[in-house]
Design goal:
By secondary structure, this protein is α/β, with parallel strands linked by helices. The chain is built from 22 helices and 18 strands. The strands form 6 sheets. It has a 5-stranded parallel β-sheet with strand order 11-14-17-10-18. A 4-stranded mixed β-sheet has the order 1-2-4-3. Strand 1 and strand 2 form a beta hairpin. Helix 2 packs across helix 3, helix 7 runs parallel beside helix 17 and helix 19 packs parallel to helix 21.
Length: 503
């Protein structure tokens, strides 16, 4: 007898529908899986057998052939265990076919018959066209986010079979106490002094402008950078679903309720490999850190310690908002629209001062500065030199504005950008700058001088105009961008030569 059960497999952050076909016939007992399965799929034979026998369900002593259709698409992961087991019971006559009609199954089986969660439940369920889907109870809240299916759950293969037969109820999703969401990144009021750097942080959050902080150790670069994510407004429903899909595919723990509704913060170590940062792999095309930071913040601390090849791999995703990973077996497009915030020392010793304070040789300083290529530096809208705070401000200075006050101004600027049809001012197209960010004659003269002096590239011109648009919005001037806003944008964009001179 032949039985078919719908399911799905994961490729990157997208689900691909799969039809599990099981044929049971007379002959020497055997179990064969075909249809380009990976090692985890081939090993499902032993997991399915042990789970059925442990649950008191029959295992046919016949020849069993499992086909994962379409056969030309590679299948990966243990999420096909449950549909294989259900299809086997239907093909063997232990379950009536009408009991599983228009129902898909996703889940991993344990040897004791338990159902375990699998990564990527959101994109897997989104790829299914059936009216109902059965998943482990621990995945029910994720599966319900798609909103198109009747989600049913079970903690074991026995519970699923009993519920299909009507001998028991479908299990409910476990309730998890919501202990409240702490303020992400901490409060900005904790930062004493650093007025200029705090201003740059607000501008970066308001316009989604990439920010580079350069300064000696102990200046507060990391403290500032980690507080930026708290200034960002909550994600819209569409953005939250995009981010949740990526986190689900990466196997990250999701918040209570399953939906990632706050901008994520990812801070990989400087020893990260290109694959871990960009995404990919040989067998499983997994999203990297830049995709996990989608709609959030990617913080690269000690950026000067990252390999130059890893940093240059960020250039294309910064422009396109996505990364295309191509392998011999498959190619995927992973979302990667993030706000890049980086912190680095001016030189290897960190002091970056005049001779006598800096212990680095000229060769070491030159080698360190070459870690950041010119094209990558040009993609930072804001490049700010951070000095150690004044002692009086550090010990006895009043606290600055808190996160809530600054976040309110950021939200107002983001709302104005939404009226222009973009997520933030950093997304304004170059062709629309004359309409959305018209300049006064004095502002044009400032930019023309910088261009003729060779201090600005064409890309830099557009980025300066976008930052000036953000400064004008923060200043309450939503129409024409003035000379003071352009000068402020240039002040926030320290040229590479100035960074090297500071070191």
């Amino acid at each position: 007898m032949i039985a078919t059960v719908p399911s799905a497999t994961l490729l990157g952050v997208e689900g691909r529908p799969v039809v599990v076909e099981v044929h049971v016939s007379n002959g020497l007992p055997g179990f064969t899986v075909v249809g380009l399965p990976d090692a985890a799929c081939r090993e499902s034979r032993d997991r399915v057998r042990a789970s059925l026998l442990s649950s008191g369900l029959p295992w046919p002593l016949k020849r069993v052939t499992v086909n994962l259709a379409p056969s030309g698409v590679r299948k990966g992961g243990p999420g096909l265990d449950l549909p294989i087991a259900i299809a086997l019971l239907v093909a063997n006559g232990d379950l009536a076919p009408e009991l599983v009609a228009n129902t898909a199954f996703v889940g991993e089986l344990g040897l004791d018959g338990s159902l375990r969660r699998v990564p990527g439940v959101v994109p897997l369920v989104d790829a299914l066209t059936t009216t109902a889907v059965v998943v482990p109870t621990t995945c029910m809240s994720e599966a319900a986010l798609v909103g198109r299916h009747s989600v049913r759950g079970g903690s074991s293969i026995r519970a699923v079979v009993d519920a299909l037969r009507g001998d028991g109820p479908w299990e409910r999703a476990p309730t998890v106490a919501d202990e409240g969401v702490p303020a992400p990144g901490g409060d900005l009021a904790d930062v004493r002094g650093q007025r200029f750097a705090r201003w740059a942080l607000e501008v970066a959050a308001a316009g989604a402008h990439h920010l580079l902080l350069t300064g000696p150790p102990g200046a507060g670069k990391t403290l500032l950078a980690r507080r930026l994510v708290g200034l960002l407004p909550p994600l819209t429903r569409a953005a939250a679903l995009e981010t949740t899909r990526v986190h689900s595919a990466a196997g990250l723990e999701l918040p209570v309720g399953g939906l990632v509704d706050r901008p994520p913060l990812r801070a990989p170590h400087h020893g990260a490999s290109p694959v871990s940062l960009i995404g990919g792999g040989s067998a499983w095309l997994r999203p990297g850190e830049i995709s996990m930071a989608h709609n959030g913040v990617l913080f690269l601390d000690e950026m000067g310690e990252f390999p130059a090849s890893v940093l240059d791999a960020l250039r294309q995703p910064l422009e396109d908002g996505a990364v295309r990973v191509c392998r011999a077996r498959a190619s995927v497009t992973l979302p990667a629209r993030f706000l890049l915030v980086a912190a680095m020392n001016p030189c290897p010793c960190g002091e970056g001062g005049p001779p006598g304070t800096c212990r680095c040789s000229e060769a070491a300083r030159a080698r360190y500065s070459r870690r950041l290529s010119g094209p990558l530096l040009d993609r930072f809208d804001l490049r700010v030199r951070v000095s150690r705070p004044d002692v009086a401000e550090l010990l006895r200075g009043p606290p600055g504005e808190g996160t809530e006050e600054v976040a309110a101004r950021v939200a107002a600027v983001r709302a104005q950008a939404a009226e222009r049809g973009v997520r933030a001012n950093a997304d304004l197209p170059a062709a629309g700058l004359d309409r959305e960010a018209p300049l006064t004659p004095a502002a044009w003269r400032v930019l023309e001088y910088r261009l003729r002096a060779g201090n600005l590239s064409a890309r830099g011109l557009h980025r300066v105009r976008r930052v000036a648009r953000t400064l004008a919005d923060l200043d309450g001037a939503p129409t024409v961008v003035g000379e003071e806003h352009v000068c402020g944008a240039l002040e926030l964009r320290t040229e590479p030569e100035a960074l090297e001179a500071a070191s």
